[in-house]
Specification:
By secondary structure, the protein is α/β, with parallel strands linked by helices. The protein is built from 13 helices and ten strands. It has one domain: CofD-like domains (Rossmann fold, 3-Layer(aba) Sandwich). The relative contact order is 0.15.
Length: 332
């Protein structure tokens, strides 16, 4: 029997959750490498008060990779968000569990392992780095914005139509050795979907990550986002996204996945008027490395009343994404 192919996913947020939810259904050896720069919402409290790496993306990966049934009480408990209570409102039970396990185990890295056992996950979850960093974006006009949360949800004093010229960390950060090992041994490395700068490239700007990816024999798959993001990718086309990946990675992806399904007009109108976001224009060449498929989820996301952060209304479909990646794996 052939050994399962090793897939490494690199990202964060709901994009990584979506990808892993589909991939775990296939006989892959999975490792999720997670960004450590999220400083918004409940993550800010856990970073500032407990000195933890932001737990939310790890929590989502744990749930995505869990073998528990989709409607199980344990999965729902991990994602449960308190809607009232001083100090509790907006917090998720899963983040509190990770904080408690960190105290019990004496290490957040050990806490992730224990949480993985509790949820009976398929695969491994590791941080891209164990350093505590803030993300910094420098725009075309020379303005610098500090912190992923502000880059992600810019305030009214910032011209969010400006393009990001440079993304970097506020202090030196080095790739976690287990993340490096996973990359070097991978058969496929998947970047995206997820916010280009604050989820995907937030990992790549860590010292040692682009070098490890370039030195790996793995094929690189990049999943293009459905929508632009005000403050990050305003006006950027699919080709612009790919060129930014190349800029920070030092090479082009081997495969590029892009949705070809028309997005619903009513939702697009809400994006335009409420978020100033638009569909990513497909101006990529016709090439066998460019895979155009129906990747759109039919589910319209509803935000929890206690959730203070902006969330995507439409997303990629987990099963459709995984099916395409399985097809790439089966190519001769």
């Amino acid at each position: 029997m052939k050994k399962p192919k090793k897939i490494v996913t690199i990202g964060g947020g709901t994009g990584l959750f979506t990808l892993l939810t589909g991939l775990k259904k296939y006989p892959f050896n999975l490792t999720a490498i997670v960004a450590i720069t999220d400083d918004g919402g409940s993550n800010k409290k856990f970073r500032d008060e407990f000195g933890l790496l932001p737990p939310s993306d790890f929590r989502q990966c744990l749930v995505a990779l869990s073998r528990e049934p989709a409607n199980s009480a344990l999965r729902e408990l991990m994602m449960y968000r308190f809607s009232r209570g001083r100090g509790f409102k907006g917090q998720t039970f899963g983040n509190i569990l990770i904080a408690a396990l960190t105290d019990i185990e004496g290490s957040q890295l050990k806490a992730f392992i224990q949480a993985g056992k509790i949820l009976n996950i398929r695969g491994k979850i590791v941080p891209v780095s164990t350093n505590h960093n803030r993300l910094v974006a420098e725009y075309e006009n020379g303005e610098k914005v500090f912190g992923e949360h502000i880059i992600d949800e810019p305030n009214r004093f910032h011209d969010s139509r400006q393009r990001i010229e440079k993304l970097f960390l506020d202090k030196p950060s080095t790739i976690y050795h287990k993340a490096k090992k996973a990359i070097m041994e991978a058969d496929y490395i998947i970047l995206g979907p997820g916010d280009l700068y604050t989820s995907t490239l937030a990992n790549v700007v860590v010292k040692g990550v682009p070098e490890a990816i370039r030195n790996s024999s793995a094929k690189i798959i990049y999943v293009v986002n459905l929508m632009t993001k005000y403050g990050q990718t305003y006006g950027l086309s699919a080709q612009d996204h790919v060129l930014e990946i190349k800029k920070y990675l030092g090479k082009l992806p081997d495969y590029i996945l892009i949705n070809k399904t028309i997005l619903p007009k009513a939702i697009l109108k809400r994006y335009e008027t409420q978020k100033h976001d638009f569909p990513v224009k497909d101006n990529l060449a016709k090439d066998k490395s460019i895979i155009r498929k129906d990747l759109l989820s039919n589910h319209i996301v509803k935000k929890h009343r206690a959730d203070k952060l902006e969330r995507s209304l439409i997303r990629h479909d987990s099963d459709k994404l995984a099916r395409v990646i399985w097809g790439i794996n089966n190519e001769k």
